[in-house]
Write a structure and sequence with these properties.
Largest sheet: 4 strands, antiparallel
Strand content: 5-15%
Distance between the termini: 38 Å
Order of helices and strands: EEHEEEHHHEEEEHHHHH
Low-confidence stretches: 204-215
Structural class: alpha+beta
Strand order of the largest sheet: 1-2-4-3
CATH class of the largest domain: Alpha Beta
CATH topology of the largest domain: Aminoglycoside 3'-phosphotransferase, Chain: A, domain 2
Radius of gyration: 19 Å
Mean pLDDT: 81
């Protein structure tokens, strides 16, 4: 077992099967799983980070996927340059494909909901302008098949021979026609959170964002991972627009911001750690150009 939501089992014929829980197994989520499968079946062989969908157990909200290649070993993601480059290349190939017919968009910037829950945000004119600009830029750059919730918890690696390992990505419930910056920014945000995770109830907050504060110094150990991901991505999608890195940083910041404020009770008192995380998210969203190199997305 890799997690509560992801189980690797061996079938009677010796083949690996991934059992993945589908959150809130609605028809919309299931429809996006099938759309990802349609893309996989018609995509370039290198874009096979989508594992083959075997079937869906709707009564239990599970999706069944084919595991790694025959004779290969499937293992969880590791924070290293080899895996990061392989993932970057796989996402690059994904973004080179044409979205399947009928695949809808999925605007991820939930501004109105957060403004209702946290009215003070409406007074932050710089943030509001930045989010409006990010939303508009995302709409201008729609046309890419986007995973939509990319994070390393849904990434597995299949390796069993020489060469670069094959990446398997699960969690396609938010698959949509969108902006490539959402996936690149999602990976950056995930690396930020893995570097300095937000506390859970009972945690000593001094171990989290508070002690490393707004300096982001602790990200130094993760920057090479992001740089490898970005290098791999550029090897496949060198024609990506020149503003992609800026939008990715802004999206990483906003998604971090929204993750903190979107969790728990609206209007609640924020912990010191959460306030610092919100501050970092705001900085990335409003001044992304200041953080492109710091976060590992500078041009090679």
């Amino acid at each position: 077992m890799f997690s509560d939501d992801l189980l690797l089992v061996t079938a009677g014929n010796g083949e690996e099967v991934l059992v993945v829980r589908v959150p809130e197994g609605t028809g919309r989520s299931m429809g996006r799983l099938y759309a990802a499968e349609r893309l996989r079946s018609s995509a370039h062989v290198e874009a096979s980070c989508v594992p083959r969908l075997i079937g869906v157990v709707r009564t239990e909200d599970f999706a069944l996927y084919e595991g790694g290649d025959s004779g290969a070993t499937t293992s969880p993601w590791k924070d290293d340059a080899v895996h990061a480059r392989a993932l970057g290349r796989s996402i690059g190939w994904l973004h080179r494909e044409t979205p399947p017919p009928g695949l809808g968009s999925n605007p991820s910037v939930e501004v109105e909901r957060l403004l209702r829950a946290w009215p003070f945000l409406g007074h932050d004119e710089l943030l509001v302008r930045a989010v409006v600009s990010l939303t508009a830029a995302g709409r201008r750059n729609v046309g890419v098949p986007v995973h939509g919730s990319l994070n390393t918890n849904c990434v597995l690696v299949s390796s069993g021979g020489p060469g670069m390992p094959r990446v398997l990505v699960t969690g396609w419930e938010e698959f949509h026609n969108g902006d490539a910056a959402q996936d690149v920014g999602g990976f950056v945000r995930d690396c930020l959170l893995r570097c300095c995770p937000l506390p859970v109830p009972g945690d000593d907050v001094s171990r989290s964002w508070v002690t490393i504060g707004g300096t982001l110094d602790a990200f130094d150990v993760r920057r090479p991972v992001v740089e490898s991901f970005w290098r791999g991505y550029g090897e496949i999608r060198a024609e990506a627009d020149h503003d992609l890195a800026l939008r990715a940083v802004a999206f990483a910041g906003w998604s971090l911001f929204a993750r903190v404020l979107g969790a728990g009770t609206p209007g609640r008192h924020l912990t010191e750690a959460e306030r610092v995380a919100v501050g970092i998210g705001r900085a990335l969203t409003t001044t992304p150009h200041d953080f492109v190199a710091l976060l590992g997305l500078a041009a090679p």
